[in-house]
Amino acid sequence: MEYALYVHIPFCIKKCHYCDFVSFPGMEDMQEDYVAALLAEMALYRGRDLRTVYLGGGTPTCMDPVFISRILEGIGRYFGTSRCVEVSIEANPGTLSDEMLDCLKKTGINRLSIGLQSWNPDELKVLGRVHNRADFIESYRRARKKGFDNINIDLIFGIPGQTMESWAKTLESIAGLRPEHISCYSLKIEEGTAFHRMLSEGVIQKPDPDLDRDMYHFAVDYLCHRGYERYEISNFAKKGRECVHNLAYWDNRPYTGIGVAAHSYGNGVRRWNTADIHRYCSMLKKGLPPVEGTETLSASEEMFETIFLKLRTRWGIDFKEFEERFGKDLRTLYGGQLEGLEKDGFVETDGRGFWLTPRGIDLSNRVFVQFLI
User: Fold this and answer.
1) Is the distance from CB of 4 to CB of 248 less than 8 angstroms?
2) Kind and range of the H or E element at 268?
3) Strand partners, 181
4) For 289-322, what is each residue's pLDDT tens digit?
């Protein structure tokens, strides 16, 4: 069995206003201890064969390059990597120095995911980003010069104060750089974030849902005309440049999570690590797994999760593949639901499978709930 490996790096320069990920600015002094803990946790899963590796955060590239090297060396030591096809790292503009890029190249990173979020300087300030547009351009050009030929750019729409014109400018500017992959995420204001507090205090207004949908539809049309294919609700790629790691999630295949607050899934069991970085390091120093909790999924829960995850992709559900995996005919289980969803224009089918229509994507939660047993 091949796994997707996720390694969580919780360090960052500054917490952005929308961020609800487990990340810790100003804790650089913990990096060495944390990397030692990561290696100790890797040893607990030694021998697993990997198809992909993804270093996320936080901002992994805000670490000292020597620690990135240790992490990648540890992955090579503890896991089977001979069939690993993709090794990604998240980076923010301004953290991709020549030294860092040389380190990433040397350690086998072959895909960069750069968090720009917006081309507009005012919107970057609203989001609480520490970089500016010039930082991004310099980082992108430097990465290209170093030979990185698989780059994703993250963008956000629905930003407070954002207009359709500024969103169009962001898309035009990024598509003009011709990255292999572009992710477009609708802003969600989560509890515990600076944006949530600012919303409750009336400092910002809740994003307009109609404008949000208009921005999404514009992005789909624009990027598709620029040679990108929407292969997942929020993700667009040049042909053959889909994110292989994330496809494992959307296919509901096994993955191993290493690091504070990381999640893992396999054989019907989900587990997650403690979100307390001090507890995480302490437990691994004692040789204890840093697991905070586990959950065993029922067969129906696994089927439901597989359906709603795969429906996020352009390929949707293949009836034969579903039956081979679960031993059940999806059309027998959900025949009435499928008929109703097709009649209402939420899904399309060719007899071999089904997928969401544009209307189904806009109202996807209404579709997914039909498959809850």
Assistant:
1) yes
2) none
3) 152, 237
4) 999 999 999 999 999 999 999 999 999 999 999 9
Secondary structure element (H or E) that encloses residue 214, with its range:
helix 209-225
Query: What is the structure's pLDDT at 373?
Result: 63
DSSP secondary structure, 38-84, as one string: HHHHHHHTTT-EEEEEEEEES-GGGS-HHHHHHHHHHHHHHSB-TT-
**Amino acid identity, position 195:** F
pTM score, whole prediction: 0.96
Residue closest to 76 by CA, chosen among 111, 48, 110 = 48
Reported as a single tens digit per residue, the pLDDT across 318-362 is: 999 999 999 999 999 999 999 999 999 999 999 899 999 999 999
Domains and CATH numbers, the chain: 2-250 (3.20.20.70), 299-371 (1.10.10.920)
Beta partners for 262? none
Model confidence over 40-84: pLDDT tens digits? 999 999 999 999 999 999 999 999 999 999 999 999 999 999 999
Long-range contacts at 60-64 (CB < 8 A, ≥ 24 apart): 60/9, 60/11, 60/89, 60/90, 60/91, 61/89, 61/90, 61/91, 61/92, 61/95, 61/96, 61/100, 61/104, 62/11, 62/12, 62/13, 62/92, 62/95, 63/9, 63/11, 63/31, 64/31
